[in-house]
Amino acid sequence: MAASIVVRRYQGWHHWTPLKLQTGYLREAFNIQMGSAAMYPLKKKETKLLRRQLPCGNSHVTKRTLHATPLCFQEVMLTSERYEVQRLPFAHVSDRDLSFFECLMPGGVITDEDELKPFNVDWLKTVRGYSKVLLKPRTTVEVSEVLRYCNERNLAVNPQGGNTGLVGGSVPVFDEIILSTALMNKIISFDSVSGILVCQAGCILENLNHYLEQQDFIMPLDLAAKGSCHIGGNVATNAGGLRLLRYGSLRGTVLGLEAVLADGSILNCLASLRKDNTGYDLKQLFIGSEGTLGIVTAVSILCPQKPKAVNLAFLGCPSFSQVLRTFTTCKGMLGEILSAYEFMDNECMELVKRHLKLVNPVAESPFYVLIETSGSNSAHDEEKLSNFLEHVMATNLVADGTLASEDKKIKMLWALRERITEALACDGYIYKYDISLPVDKLYDLVTDLRARLGRSARSVVGYGHLGDGNLHLNITAESYSHSLQEAIEPYVYEWTSQYCGSISAEHGLGFKKKHYIHYSKPREAILLMQQFKAMLDPKGILNPYKTLPVKAE
Amino acid sequence: MAASIVVRRYQGWHHWTPLKLQTGYLREAFNIQMGSAAMYPLKKKETKLLRRQLPCGNSHVTKRTLHATPLCFQEVMLTSERYEVQRLPFAHVSDRDLSFFECLMPGGVITDEDELKPFNVDWLKTVRGYSKVLLKPRTTVEVSEVLRYCNERNLAVNPQGGNTGLVGGSVPVFDEIILSTALMNKIISFDSVSGILVCQAGCILENLNHYLEQQDFIMPLDLAAKGSCHIGGNVATNAGGLRLLRYGSLRGTVLGLEAVLADGSILNCLASLRKDNTGYDLKQLFIGSEGTLGIVTAVSILCPQKPKAVNLAFLGCPSFSQVLRTFTTCKGMLGEILSAYEFMDNECMELVKRHLKLVNPVAESPFYVLIETSGSNSAHDEEKLSNFLEHVMATNLVADGTLASEDKKIKMLWALRERITEALACDGYIYKYDISLPVDKLYDLVTDLRARLGRSARSVVGYGHLGDGNLHLNITAESYSHSLQEAIEPYVYEWTSQYCGSISAEHGLGFKKKHYIHYSKPREAILLMQQFKAMLDPKGILNPYKTLPVKAE
After folding, report:
1. In terms of CATH architecture, what is B79-180?
2. CATH 3.30.70.2740-classified regions of chain A
3. Residue A432 touches chain B, beta carbons under 8 Å
4. pLDDT interval class at B550 (50, 70, 90)
5. Residues of chain B with CATH 3.30.70.2740
6. Is A439 in the B-facing interface, judged by CB distances under 8 Å?
7. Under an 8 A CB cutoff, do A251 and B281 touch?
8. CATH of A14-51+307-420 given 3.30.70.2190, 3.30.470.20, 3.10.20.30, 2.40.10.10
9. Which of A330, A331, A543, B480 could form a Cys-Cys staple with A291, CB 3.0–4.6 A?
């Protein structure tokens, strides 16, 4: 069947269904929705919904901003009580230490217990430390002085960016000093010919993106936590996110970084060059080291040009195998303009509807996919997308769908996918897994676990970056339960290991997953990592109890 | 001016000149050349030229295949005689050692002096060692056994792939044992859903590309040396090349690798996952370590789909500033389909004409640029390219040009750029520099050096990957001269350092550049690299005298 539709600029929401697929009908279906009359009421309603979607009364929940918008303020159990973990023999912070810090950075030392609270607990409210001091340096030299001093005094340090991590890596386990990059938020330079941005580690991802958009560029990464997360934290955890499919990982886009080592020495590898083969690429060791090898203080990053045209399709698929076939088709037909391919199951949709009052814009389906295209020519992109949509409808890969090209509508559709984490946080205690698997096995783990856990779990849901083979598997329950935890772990890790997957695709190991590293890495690799840690941080003061099991284990 | 040309599928060579720019003329100019009559005689002539272009009588010179096609067989001065370098106290290979190797890999031990010759000298014929033994293992276990033995015996080992390196990194300096990956040339797996290829280190890049093309994929890198270079060597040297602009560096596309460490232990990080954040990314340390930290034995690499449409434009520009403005315009107008932006000066063109008898397809210009587009829809791509060409002609950025979309023509145009290295090798002794600089400074170094060296150099030429800010600066002379070398170095490095550039963008440091690392890396970084080397290879047996200055220096 060779239906040919000229799809022009979509301004609103566009629905169609392959059940009635005919070339004439299709054209009509696309055009009917293009009038603004049908669009505005929907827009209004959605805006209203957005305002009352919050369980805690704050309207900025699309930002994962714990400090400004805590989801619920019930006290979280101390990590040291919930988990079997012993405090290592680090020194305790003394008044003399506080005087040193206060002298080094007047006004940048916080010891007030209430003020410290949100910095001691993770965004998911699953782990909590009891640090007595938070430091907010403004410069690399201050960070260097702090670490030199702490290393000498044997004081443990917990580096913290936006505290949006999901594996307990960004908060203290005991009383580690919290070193926040919040005030290190200066843009150092931007070159609009090369697209290279250099900035301090504490710049918030969304702010950087706003800054770049004014100059017709964008950040090469995008996360649901963009409103709070710091670029230094993104780099330290090798954040993935929604644009990885198109612009690749931070291992390719981060061109340089500056880091302060445990002994306070400053490693300046802040090059702004696309290519540099002079010796070993040291910066790579700090990317993804979760603050255990050094504190990232500045970053040089290659930013792509802002696409001239962005389109989003939100589609309903009858089965996971159709989600996969739609992906293969889409890679072939959309090629270089494909910028995201995300999926979520209907259980996720139920959660965002129930807890955040979002509206499902298409007919209920077992699975939904979100396809984003970004390109330099809107007419070309829309033609490609139109051909693709025709094909997937004609072949019954897709049951229903809606399209958007206008910024506000695009954001509304993205919210359905981006705010799942938030909806889960409202559903109860979350057991969170972030798995890489061969795509054809990706959803089997969810189905399997749903059957295994039965009614002991409230929800078992799967969503994620299908284009990258990355599943976010989440289980919720009324509260933390050791027996439920044991029903899930190590079962999930064993399952993943069996298919040579990764037990942490993008979240890192942090505190919660470090004991499971051997499911994804061989013994020799773990030993080598421990050697690197011992070499760079012999006293182990940097983010202790995280990422690697200690050597004796 | 808003000329609108419908450019359809180009089958042949197409010329135009903006001097006569009129919409009507332009359309005519494009169409006139589309008939095949004008094309075939040219094709025939070019084929003939290709056959007799070789200084050494072999027709496979587009492959940088030293072993099969040495360019000239004059004896090269021994590295140990030309350079001030002392042999380190490694053991000498004994008959007992040879017996061990022969027993381990029967038939894989070469000691014949003539057979060893090409493995002892680099492709450029600038450095030469005198190894007495070449080992050709077939498996990782054999490599492991060799290294375990050599480490115990304190025997130095020089890993070698296709021996196409340009900084003397791939041949022995003294009598190091050469360990060639030539027989480790098996493809282990290819997944056509994910596009992930897993293969042994000795696979030749071009062979891998041919294999992938049959399955509608391509390798994410492309080099002039593709006919000889091994993927393991590419990874070990973090090769850049022609597709980096589009598909990014190996730091992003290499998903996993297997390496054998100095003590023979096998590090299996051969994951086939797009995302894996379980601990430090050890593989990155081996990418670009030039065989000094371990021997890469297998690689897992993410391959892009083969583009459905490829177009090539070869353009003449009146000045370097116009080369730069054409680049900026091209990034904006071609966007996501731009896959290469290369430049060469007219001095390069003279060399490929003189030594390889290639034909300049456009009017003589001070500079030439080669723009490649790769996309999923030929009509869209051609429309974008046509709009772009109209614009650069109308604004006089480009003086003359030719287009190709047919595979043979594309290869002929690429040869003009890819075979410059070969033409230089015919011009005399080459002083070779591979520099990263801010693009607006890129050519100033060539002009400056041309003035500085005057008639003491035969040719001073500049070409390279402008899209990546990468200049290949080459100086030729009748033979090696110490005084000429001193007129160039460290001047070139100081010049580069002044603009925060890299003294080796993609070639690595190897033997020839290791003493200049401090021009691009701070002291702290070099010290840390030396610590890594000491940790991973305490006896320093792996590719000694390369990449890093020794600690005492």
Report:
1. 2-Layer Sandwich (3.30)
2. 428-520
3. no
4. confident
5. 427-514
6. yes
7. yes
8. 3.30.70.2190
9. A543
Q: Which residues of B touch A509 (CB under 8 A)?
A: 277-279
Residues of B in contact with A332 (CB under 8 A): 305, 376
Q: How many CB pairs under 8 A join A and B?
A: 254
Q: Are B206 and B122 in contact (CB under 8 A)?
A: no
Residue from the list A238, A336, A525 with its beta carbon closest to the beta carbon of B337: A336
Domain boundaries B14-52+308-420, corresponding CATH code:
3.30.70.2190
A532 → closest Cβ in B280, B328, B520: B280
A520 interaction partners in chain B (CB closer than 8 Å): 271, 276, 278
CA distance A181 to chain B (A): 22
Closest in B268, B331, B529 to A522, CB measured? B268
Question: Start-end ranges of CATH 3.30.70.2190 in chain B?
Answer: 14-52+308-420
HEC profile of A289-305: CCCCCCEEEEEEEECCE
Residue with tokens 């989600």: A323
pLDDT tens digit string along B376-403?
999 999 999 999 999 999 999 999 999 9
At position A118, the amino acid (one-letter code) is P
| Nearest-Cα residue of chain B relative to residue A381 | B380
Distance of CA B251 to the CA centre of its chain: 16
Interface of B with A in 195-254 (CB under 8 A): 237-238, 240, 244, 248-249, 251-253
What is this model's ipTM?
0.88
The answer to whether the peptide bond before residue B70 is cis (omega within 30 degrees of 0) is no
B505 neighbourhood in chain A, CB within 8 Å: 273, 275-277
Cβ contacts of A148-152, under 8 Å, gap ≥ 24: A148/A263, A148/A264, A149/A97, A149/A100, A149/A101, A149/A104, A149/A264, A150/A177, A150/A541, A151/A262, A151/A263, A151/A264, A151/A539, A151/A541
Interface check for B485 against chain A (CB to CB < 8 A): the answer is: no
B427-514, which class in CATH?
Answer: alpha beta
Q: Which helix (H) or strand (E) element contains residue B465?
A: strand B459-465
The CATH number of domain A428-520, selected from 3.30.450.20, 3.30.70.2740, 3.30.230.10, 3.20.20.60:
3.30.70.2740
| Backbone angles phi and psi of A257, in degrees to 5 | -155, 160
Residue of B nearest to A497 (CA): B271
Is domain B187-302 given the CATH code 3.30.465.10 in the classification? yes
The pLDDT of residue A550 is 83
Q: Is B115 within 8 Å of chain A by CB? A: no
Closest chain A CA to residue B376: A335
Are the C-beta atoms of residues B470 and B434 closer than 8 Å to each other? yes
Q: Kindly state the tokens that stand for B513.
A: 């550049």
From-to residues of CATH 3.30.465.10 in chain B: 187-302
CATH 3.30.43.10 residue ranges of chain A are 79-180
Backbone angles phi, psi at B404, to 5 degrees: -145, 145
Phi, psi of B204 (to 5 degrees): -80, 135
Average pLDDT of the residues in A172-194: 96
Structure tokens at B401: 């040009």
Q: Tally the residues of chain B.
A: 553
Chain A residues with CB inside 8 Å of B331's CB?
A: 305
The whole-angstrom separation of Cα B7 and Cα B40 is 21
- Give tens-digit pLDDT for B84-131: 899 999 999 999 999 999 999 999 999 999 999 999 999 999 999 999
Taking the Cβ of residue A281 and every Cβ of chain B, the question of whether any pair is shorter than 8 Å is answered with: yes
End-to-end CA distance of chain A: 62
Verify whether the Cβ–Cβ distance A507 to B277 is below 8 Å: yes
